[in-house]
Amino acid sequence: MKLGRLGLTAGLVLSVMMAGCDSGSLAGTGGEKSSNMVKPLGKDEKASIKVAYYDKNSFLQMYGNMFSVKYPNIDVQVVSMQDTSGPGFQKLIDDEQPDVLVFHSPERFKEWAEQGRLYQLDPVIRQDKFDTENILPNVMDLLKSKGGGNIYGLAPSFYSQALFYNKDLFEKFGVPLPHNKMSWEEVLQLAKRFPKDGHGNDRIYGFARNSADWIVSENKALGYYLMNSIGTTHGLEDMDPVKGTVTLQSEGWKHALGLAADALKSGAVYTGKTSDPADSNEAWLKRDLFVTGKVAMTLESPYMINNIVRAKEELKDVNPVNWDIVTVPVDPKNPDASSTIDVSEIFAINAKSSNPRAAWELVKYINSDEMAKQLAKTEQFGFLSRTAYVKERDGRDLEPFYMLKMSNRGLQAGEQVPSEFYATFNEMAGNEVQLVVDGKKSIDEALNTMQTKGQEIYNAVKQKQ
User: Which of 146, 237, 390, 449 could form a disulfide with 110 if both were Cys (CB 3.0 to 4.6 A apart)?
Assistant: First the structure.
């Protein structure tokens, strides 16, 4: 995603498994093959497989150690992808030929499936009667859609967001509580109903995207991030990755910019000007406006709950926030879908694997009910795909995180456009939004500049590549 995902585990940064091997003979989107039916390992049969993962220690801590206890006869070697990119990565894949691959990008996963590089899992899922019924349908639907209707990988966790709100602030100022499936207009109208006349510690904001380090590092782009969130909800793209063109001059983007600029101008939205360093956990938590009761609503991942719980335990001079959640804002024309839902890691088997049975045992175990039960205790994940183990937290119902259907709208460009483009573009676009807020530019003028300068930035990045 172009806006970044906050709080994900180290394994999620892998854009690994992205380049690759020659087409294998065991799978393809053209249908199942009998060779995909694999013979179970014998009682004392030993096997050795390789898994390509971001970091060896992360893999062992999250999956490998528990797998080794369950399957002591299967030796799992971890091929670390942490310091490998470009040609070096390609060479490592060719040299090591890992049996199990991990994808962070669903689009890359789709490419590999289409090119026959992945082992089709449908036959072995049926053969072993592996339970996929209790995996979130959203997750299975996404995986099947990327595999042409077939299953080429499984995802133990997924990413999502919800709208967190401070119940006490809503009650104090007589503002109606948020509800599921609100539009952006409704959310920002609620935000405007909070007072804007406080100063210092008495200042209350109606809305903020306020992960503490996001505030510090991204404040110049804040206006565009709000505009982009609104546009993405409505299925808009700021880039056409196929044509290589910026696509901001449209009625949809005019509406998104107008709504964002109006909200920022009202003073209801936190403007992200904090820059104090956080040299301790306590300082980091105190910088978070939601956990300290200074903001009424914020969009965040499940990791915000960890911050709230930690603040309750560690910040003795701060009253615990009385929080709850509803779904993220939605497009009124498509109120049951959200583009903030995505899979975190997809585990697949290399079609060239010399031991697909042992590789399947690893993929199967990582995605099993048994593993989900264990991972639910560690709180290392945002959400497990087996949602039976993530029904509630801190006494709150977590359904708003997964009640909406998964929508790919607004995500495709972000997966295919170089990250270097957004690093420069977001700040430039944020400055243009601020000019609209300050009354120094019209919406049309700002969008025209974003379009023109954005195209120049994109062309320069592609030329470098």
Answer: 146
Q: Could you identify the residue written with the tokens 């006490």?
A: 168
What is the C-alpha to C-alpha distance for residues 362 and 49, in angstroms, rounded to an integer?
A: 9
10 Å Cβ neighbour count for 219? 18
What is the CA 169 to chain-centroid distance, rounded? 29
Q: Where are the beta strands (DSSP E) in 112-154?
A: 153-154
Q: Please, what is the Cα angle at 449 between 443 and 453, to 5 degrees?
A: 155
Q: CA–CA separation, 48 vs 361, rounded Å? A: 12
Q: Please, are residues 384 and 375 in contact by the beta-carbon 8 Å criterion?
A: yes
As to burial, measured by CB atoms within 10 angstroms (0-12 exposed, 13-18 middle, 19+ buried), residue 348 is buried
Q: Which residues pair with 100 in a beta bridge?
A: 51, 349
Distance set, CA 359 to CA 52, 124, 236, 346, 353 (Å): 12, 12, 39, 14, 8
Residues 112-142 have pLDDT tens digits of: 899 999 999 999 999 999 999 999 998 999 9
| pLDDT confidence of residue 90 | 59
Q: Strand 100-103 relative to strand 346-349: parallel, antiparallel, unpaired?
A: antiparallel
Residue 279, class by beta-carbon neighbours within 10 Å (0-12 exposed, 13-18 middle, 19+ buried)? Answer: exposed
Q: 3-state class of 224 per DSSP?
A: helix
Angstrom distance (rounded) from CA 5 to CA 358: 32
Query: Cα dihedral angle (50, 53, 57, 58), rounded to 10 degrees?
Result: -130
Among residues 139, 111, 180, the alpha carbon closest in space to that of 342 is found at 139
Give the pLDDT confidence score for residue 408 in this predicted structure.
59
What average pLDDT does this structure show over 37-52? 80
pLDDT in tens, 388-410: 887 778 889 999 998 998 875 54
C-beta separation of 416 from 110 below 8 A: no
Quick: pLDDT tens for 229-279. 999 999 999 998 888 999 999 999 999 999 999 999 999 998 765 555 556
Nearest-CA neighbor of 258 among 240, 234, 241? 234
Q: Which of 189, 161, 125 is nearest to 8 (CA)?
A: 161
pTM: 0.83
Please tell me the distance from the alpha carbon of residue 392 to that of residue 455, in angstroms, as a whole number. Answer: 45
Q: Which of 198, 197, 163, 196 is nearest to 177 (CA)?
A: 163
* Residue 385 near residue 157, CB atoms below 8 Å: yes
Q: For the segment 346-376, what is each residue's pLDDT rounded down to a tens digit?
A: 999 999 999 999 999 999 999 999 999 888 8
Looking at residues 306-312, what average pLDDT do you find? Answer: 88
